[in-house]
Amino acid sequence: MHSMVNDDGATRGERHGTAQAERPGASTGKVKGRPRGRPRSFDRETALEKALLAFWEHGYEATSVSDLTRVMDIGAPSLYAAFGDKQSLFEEVVQVYGTRYGSFTDRALAEEPTARAAVERMLREAATAYTEPGHPHGCLVVHAAANCSTPEVEQSLRDRRNASIAAFESRIRADVAAGVLPPGTDAAALARHTGAMIQGMSQQARDGASREELEAVAEIAMSIWPRTGTHTG
């Protein structure tokens, strides 16, 4: 169930000293401001999805708080009250993106019997996911890092990309140990190649490559994989 949040920033304003709320009995000698109406409510999940699309389209650094409040259709105090600061909002966005749009990598690694089958499926599904209509092309985790000057955000995104490469390498090493891949397979290099392909496909999609063009790239990428060992893979 989606949660509804009041669009009322008085508490946040007082916390940050950006607004001075009137207190009972205070004598300021000033005319009172207009009465505050009933706080407007917004759907938190809908606002979060709009923020996700903004970060995905423009990247972390180029998306300002004013951009976010405009696309989310909420005030800045409400954004801070509901999501924390811009960095906290982005961290939540990345989590949602991984579940809603980027889960095909984890599914392929978990469900396919071999590293080769998992990577082949992942690249094929990336070609589709990165070019789907209705949302920005490419991968948010790759694109949002462009020109990022916030060290914590840059490091977090780098850690995510490196974690994927480590997962590829783990699966490849397991297949080498099981005889599915030849004993001389360079698992680290093959995993790094896979990471380069998925990241490159993301940028190609941003540059206008079609699903069919990316599928052709994926097919060529798989052609360099070593032949299977003693087991079928």
What does this structure look like?
With 233 residues, the chain is mainly α. The protein has two domains: 42-85, Arc Repressor Mutant, subunit A; 102-224, Tetracycline Repressor, domain 2 (Orthogonal Bundle), CATH 1.10.357. It has eleven helices and two strands, in the order E-H-E-H-H-H-H-H-H-H-H-H-H. The protein has a two-stranded antiparallel ribbon. Helix 1 crosses helix 4 (76-83). It is elongated, with a radius of gyration of 24 Å. The two termini are 43 Å apart. Residues 8-35 have low confidence and may be disordered.
Blueprint of the fold:
Layout: E1 4-7, H1 10-16, E2 40-43, H2 44-58, H3 65-72, H4 76-83, H5 86-100, H6 104-111, H7 115-129, H8 140-143, H9 151-177, H10 187-206, H11 211-223
Content of β-strand? under 5%
Which residues form runs of ≥5 with pLDDT under 50? 8-35
N- to C-terminal distance: 43 Å
Which word captures the global form?
elongated
Write down the Rg: 24 Å
Write down the domain tally: 2
Largest sheet: 2 strands, antiparallel
Measured as a percent range, the helix fraction is 55-70%
Q: Please state the average pLDDT score.
A: 85
Q: In CATH, what is the class of the largest domain?
A: Mainly Alpha
Number of E-state strands: 2
Give, in order, the helices and strands: EHEHHHHHHHHHH
Q: What is the CATH architecture annotation of the largest domain?
A: Orthogonal Bundle
* Structural class computed from helices and strand pairing: mainly alpha
CATH topology of the largest domain: Tetracycline Repressor, domain 2
Strand order of the largest sheet: 1-2
Number of helices: 11
CATH evolutionary superfamily of the largest domain: Tetracycline Repressor, domain 2
